[in-house]
Amino acid sequence: MKSLKNFSEKSIKEYLIDNYNLINIKKIQSLPHNNINSRIYKISTHDEKILLRFFTDGVGKYNSTPKKIEKICSIQNNCNQVGLPVQKPIVNKKGKFTDAKNNLFLTKYYDGKIFAGTRNELKNLSLNIALLHKFLKKEKIQIQSQLDQPIRKIISYNELNKINDQLSNKKQNKFEKIVARNSNFILENLEKLQTASKQKLNSKVQLIHNDLHPHNVIFHNGIINSFLDFNSMGIGNVMDDISFASFRFSAFKEKNPKIINQNLKLFINEYVKISPIKKTDKKMYFDFIRKRLLKNISYIIRVKFFIDNHFLWDVDLVKNLNYLKLLSKIESEGW
């Protein structure tokens, strides 16, 4: 079999037999996925469950090219071999993790549940992220994250002013009304981040996961079964991983800023048992979160206004704006 153009169950089954010796396939199930550039299938055999993932988000050093995914799978495999709870990639008959022609790779499927919000889960998460960082620090493979693309940089005052000028001279749709309503709030946070940047957000630079949120970690009986989805992995500030992960998990099942703040402290206290965090990084902890949220917001707005006006991620924009507003409340609780 030469290709999987039609993605039919028959063609996938033939492909798996030819390229992986996967026989006794009982079921092939297409899984929902929030990334429009990816397609995932769950393969069930008599002995195991496997995920087949297609990646199609373009070319270039920032995107999920076969060469980049091969590197990422190699790192995941190294992590798995030392006992870290990382999604295990599966090698094909050619000794590769990826199929460059069909833009796909296979990994083990992990049973379990997403984060339930317990303190024990949060503590276990923090310890395992610290162990993951400690291992990734030693990895020599260099990868540039898709989150470092120029299009994802934080929006400038000039861009924001251009957008405001556009909005003041037209009838606004739903997305544009959200931007107009929150323009001053975004500007306030840009100014806060600019002040913080003068003190340099320059923690340890190494390989990081870059996308640790509740839907990318599987738990089983309160313990991490696997970290998932390493496609955003790249060289970055370790505090970007620490701050983003701790914030997203701490706020996942909780809306009370005081309790979220307590969860953040719990996370940090567990992390430093494995790996130290500099006092200057801890002091600027909220600025690292603000930077990530502003990058998310900037990407959504920039694509909409300067690249594709049909790009309407209303839900994602509102989600990130709400996180930014929550961050302000948590900050007021003190660190």
Would you write up a description of this structure?
With about 325 residues, the chain is α+β, with helices and mostly antiparallel strands. It contains ten helices and ten strands. The protein has helices spanning about 10-20, 65-80, 120-135, 155-170, 175-195, 240-250, 255-270, 280-285, 285-305, 315-330; strands spanning about 25-30, 40-45, 50-55, 90, 100, 105-110, 205-210, 215-220, 225, 235. Strands 1, 2, 3, 4, 5 and 6 form a six-stranded antiparallel sheet that branches. Strands 7-10 form a two-stranded antiparallel ribbon. Helix 6 packs across helix 9 (about 285-305).
In summary, what is this structure?
With 335 residues, the chain is an alpha+beta fold. The chain contains ten helices and ten strands.
Provide keyphrases for this structure.
335 residues, alpha+beta, 6-stranded antiparallel sheet, two-stranded antiparallel ribbon, globular
Task: Measure the end-to-end span.
Answer: 59 Å
Using only C-alpha atoms, the radius of gyration works out to 21 Å
Sketch the topology as an H/E string, one letter per element: HEEEHEEEHHHEEEEHHHHH
Instruction: Give the number of helices.
Output: 10
Question: Which whole number gives the mean pLDDT?
Answer: 90
The biggest sheet amounts to: 6 strands, antiparallel
3D shape: globular
Poorly predicted runs? none
Number of strands: 10
What is the beta-strand fraction? 5-15%
Q: Which secondary-structure class do the elements indicate?
A: alpha+beta
Helix content: 40-55%
